[in-house]
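Predict the assembly for these two chains.
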Amino acid sequence: MNPLSSPLLSDLYQFTMLQSYLEQDMQETAVFELFIRKLPPGRNFMVAAGLEELLDFLENLEFSLEELDWLAPRFHPSFIDYLKQFRFSGDVHAMPEGTLFFPHEPFLRITAPLPQAQLIESRIINLLHFETLIASKAARSVLIAPDKLLVDFGMRRAHGAEAALLAARASYLAGFSGTATVLAGALYDIPLFGTMAHSYIQAHVDESTAFERFAYSNPDNVVLLIDTYDTEAAARKVVTLAPKLAADHININGVRLDSGDLAAHAHNVRHILDQGGLNNTTIFASGNLDEYKLQTLLSAKAPIDGFGIGTALDVSMDAPAFDCAYKLQEYAGKPRRKRSEGKATWPGRKQVYRYYTPDGELSHDIVALVENDPYDGQQLLEPVMLAGQRIHPKRPLHDIRQLTLAGYTRLPKAMSALETATAYPVTISPALQDLAKQLDAEMMSR
Amino acid sequence: MNPLSSPLLSDLYQFTMLQSYLEQDMQETAVFELFIRKLPPGRNFMVAAGLEELLDFLENLEFSLEELDWLAPRFHPSFIDYLKQFRFSGDVHAMPEGTLFFPHEPFLRITAPLPQAQLIESRIINLLHFETLIASKAARSVLIAPDKLLVDFGMRRAHGAEAALLAARASYLAGFSGTATVLAGALYDIPLFGTMAHSYIQAHVDESTAFERFAYSNPDNVVLLIDTYDTEAAARKVVTLAPKLAADHININGVRLDSGDLAAHAHNVRHILDQGGLNNTTIFASGNLDEYKLQTLLSAKAPIDGFGIGTALDVSMDAPAFDCAYKLQEYAGKPRRKRSEGKATWPGRKQVYRYYTPDGELSHDIVALVENDPYDGQQLLEPVMLAGQRIHPKRPLHDIRQLTLAGYTRLPKAMSALETATAYPVTISPALQDLAKQLDAEMMSR
């Protein structure tokens, strides 16, 4: 059983419901949509991400013999027979990865026989929620520090291996420069960055020796960690070492700060390096950073050229989850509506139309029904899979990243800031509102 | 490249440092320890978890041809040759899973040739940090609601698939009753629980039909979701349906509430069920629950028998990460110390000794050097792997769970509460304090 692609990566109730659907032969077409109910605190928009992984999952979804054997004693034989030939044969419409979106807007729509659309719910949310969460977090650092090198340093405190890999992907997609996670570089072709750890310094007899040995071992990427004992003293050791390395044609590309008052140390270190003629040696900072600390450092004009952002990014520290739901909006041609308190949904299959100002900035969106409810805005949901097959080849991650960056240029200024801006206008079309009322009336009359 | 077991699941700097260590033939024994600097907000203790997954990772660590091919253009040929025959041949000492522990206490110690101990750092933290995070969060619900059925419902908003699986494992280990995640049941033999989704209700022509069909399809586990439209009205439909099902020897085991004022609905529904003779039908609640909401519901004497806890558990919502570090404490027989501002470490290889009161409650711990610093308390760190081989067979998860539950009985009352208690006394032995001073003095004199 492959922990990342098994169809058992689902909640038990999906199987229980499936068995019941099949007994009743309820296999007509269902339409489910994925949307968020509200923005996480502090966010002004979300960045759609995770679609390519989801399409991979759907294309390859089948039960292995081992999985069927495990299920067999727990379910009816006829249900197991059904699962033996289970494949996803439905359609997927989605906002392209990198699209900016807002509450109440479906960013994914599944159209498939009910049992299929139901079984995949848990993994759909699991994948899209997480990558969207991280892309939306990463976007904030990119927007306030567009000219800085931003690197994902979060693998160690990400929630497991898949989280680390997807966080590297989602943050790169959102405009980061790269990651330190080697496997993410290998799997997704994301640029890799790295320096050295404190243990490297500690393992040597002294700091200067450690610096020198590292430089000779890695002459093309000499970034020296200078905070193990005394930051400014270490910066002076770097200056002392530089001529010897220069004689061997080795440049000291950068130094890294990882503790203490980063702004103060950066000013001191910049001064020491410049006095020593190392004007081209950059300063890289890390250590419990997030977009708020970045903003403080930028305001203090700290001479820092790049930032490693770890834990706060990979766990989306200030908002480690958001409220999203995958809901049945239509079954057997009939719109459906959930009315639970505080959790009601907009029924029917829907499209999101986007409008821009004459200057090309985001103006407003309209959520409308797909049929008989026409608008002329940009249609954000596109077909990406039909009858279980991807329509387009997998989109290169670099291209998605360009799309995201282009999207940022259309954000009104207030929405690019860390502070909460006025909510972006998302309107529910009159026809959709009427449909909801009509369904409520039908329900009351039963 | 297996995303969960690849040796590329590491930070780039580990490889860069390794290459340099090998050039310098720095392959003497290193001792690294994993510890936390401080408790997450609101926590009174941590629950160690994740060790078995780590030992699996270490036992199987090797580079595939594909991985070596990917590395080859990026590193020296002699380094690639070294990686070809790379295996973990070191020792692992650890607190058994389920052990309660505190800041400054090493809960894992790696003793291995420096390059080996270094390469595995990123995945060690990645695995142990996350499972310990979730076990420590889950423990809080278990302690305040020891007589309730507690089920992990968090897969969909866990950070990827591995996080969902490890969260199911860690919460069960910490005393939860089970999980809804099917694959976690299959892989770890964790009891599975599940009911139905709103979509099941919505897909049927009406709620009563949905209830009836579900009961006939799943006669052994009839738990009906009653909040899709109107909770109390649905409870009355359940009562109406009961005699028909009873005639076919089907019991309605429970109902589930998922929205609104859970305490008020539970009181109303309990009354409706009891009036209808369904005294044995339990009430299960879910919907954005965490230990604080549990406490509120328990205080309100809400007649709820079990709780599904999802997002807040699987992402450890109030503390999605904690400050832990894997630090070099000894190399080539010599203790090492990092002194970075706010991040200094206690040097040398250490043991944690635990003392109990005459009543068997936790009294205090002492962190001391392994050699020449004897104490008579319970030694918390045990050897679990020697020369790269597990000492014991994999411990069954049920046994670990029993160990955790036994550990809770030794907690002083204040530490079992959700509120922050007085910090548990952890003392650094005088010999260890002397060693730190001595290393600082040596450093200053250089």
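Residues 121-144 of chain A form the longest helix (24 residues). Chain A has two domains: 12-134+319-445, 146-314.
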